[in-house]
Amino acid sequence: MSAIRVPSPNRGPVHPATAPGGLPLLGHLPAMVTRPLAFLDTLPALGDPVRVRVGPRDLYIVSTPESIHRVLTERADYDRSGPLYAKIRTFLGNGLATCPHADHRRLRRIVQPAFQRALLPRYAEAMTAETAALTARWRPGRTVDITHEAFTLTTAVAVRTLFSAGLTPGAAERLRHALDVLLRGLYLRVVLPAADLLPTPSRFEYRRALRSWHAGVAGIVADYRARGVDHGDVLSLLLAARDEDGRPLDERELADQVATLVLAGAETTSSALAWALRLVAEHPEVERKLHAEVDAGPADRPARWEDLGQLPYAGQVVNETLRLYPPAWAISRTTARPVELGGARLPAGALVVCCLYLLQRRPDLFPDPTRFDPDRFAPGAVQRDAYLPFGLGATRCLGDRFGAVEATLALATVAGRWRLRPVSDGAVRPVPRLVLSPGPQPVRLTARVSAPAG
After folding, report:
1. pTM of this prediction?
2. How far, CA to CA in Å, does 237 sit from each of 70, 233, 240, 338, 402?
3. How confident is the model at residue 267 (pLDDT cuts 50, 70, 90)?
4. Cα 95 to Cα 426: distance, rounded to the nearest angstrom
5. CB 394 within 8 A of CB 99
6. Domains in the chain: ranges and CATH
7. Helices in 93-200 by DSSP H: which ranges?
8. Residue 452: band (very low, low, confident or very high) from pLDDT cuts 50, 70, 90
9. Those residues with Cβ within 8 angstroms of residue 126's Cβ, 6 or more apart along the chain or in another chain
């Protein structure tokens, strides 16, 4: 990689470099819509930060550990505000993943007990059960879209752990469909706000999904309140929670937290799992090591919580997948006042994008960075400052352990019984949504016979 531009020590802060190739009026919008990752790959050689024009707006892309740590931890200078977050809140509301820093501490204190480690074994039971139910429907020789299967699985787990009672299969499917439509449409609306002004079929579909989503979530919350029963799930914990002043979440706050948790539990984990399954299928040596580990542990039964200690390599596969394809591939903040970042001067109200996708593929931090190598995550082998798939600081994802456990158990369960073979030899093209998702991935299912332990 070319050397990063560093201002002379004898000069004051300078204006950041601007990415080349911008068009009149549109700027770099066509590249951000049609080939965002290929475009972003060209930026680190220009400096840090790099200015990108998206229509009338400027984005400042950062990809070094130093800049990303500053942006994600210096809360007085960088907040979750501005037009981009306003757009995301139309879908997710003022949830823990989208709220300004002024609201974050209170909401985190309320939500955090639902993700304490002591509850993970209970959640893992739902993960194991739903993975077993999904794979029981598979048949040798059949072709399935593993991206769709992963999304179906993680949505079912999210629904089951969030609200274990009172949700019919039809209601769960409506939520899953609405979530899928919204996630496909949200990235476009973030980079192209005018998408909501065009009378296209996709615009009407998006608005229908948004109404369905809000109505579905509000209905679930109202039903739980009316019953007044502790079901031992996440929503029951949220209903009973109080902040440090003894205040509960109101109806809107509850709906916003539920929306955020469904997204975090479904989309981010499904992306990681779909990528992991594809990468294992494409790397025979990794597949062999994974199969050997699973055959010595849970073998051809679904993996459970108590098996995790026997699945360290499966965990390394998940970690390396999250390095190559972090679901939260770009995390944005807005400057609350004029700041100096990486030797460059940024005005108040500037939109700064921490590109974790670029950070975790830097050759100066991860040698041969595009190679899939789970052994990077053998004990003691990871440069932690450059591996941030769940974010950093006070806004780090609360469900990081939840997602890692789910992906590891699902990966081991599939590996114990099945080999997946891509129908096409072509490379999978990442699809930037709110998270970095693979597109459709048709694979052929081949049953395998587990080798005897020992």
Report:
1. 0.87
2. 33, 6, 5, 41, 16
3. confident
4. 38
5. no
6. 1-92+329-388 (1.10.630.10)
7. 101-111, 120-136, 146-162, 169-191
8. very low
9. 157, 160, 161, 164
397 assigned to a ligand binding site: yes
**What does the block give as tokens for 414?**
């599939």
Q: What per-residue confidence (pLDDT) applies to 266?
A: 80
Q: Amino acid identity, residue 330?
A: A
How far apart, in Å, are the Cα atoms of 353 and each of 52, 72, 149, 435?
A: 10, 10, 31, 14
Rounded Cα distance between 130 and 123, Å, is 11
Average pLDDT over residues 151-174: 79
Q: What CA–CA distance (Å, rounded) separates 166 from 379?
A: 43
Q: Which residue is listed with tokens 């130093």?
A: 66
DSSP letter string, 170-212 = HHHHHHHHHHHHHHHHHHHHHH-GGGGTS--HHHHHHHHHHHH
pLDDT band (50, 70, 90) for residue 13 = low
Token pair 């093209």 in the structure block, residue? 429
Of the ranges 167-176, 279-288, 443-452, which is most confident?
279-288
Which stretch of DSSP H or E encloses residue 243?
Answer: none
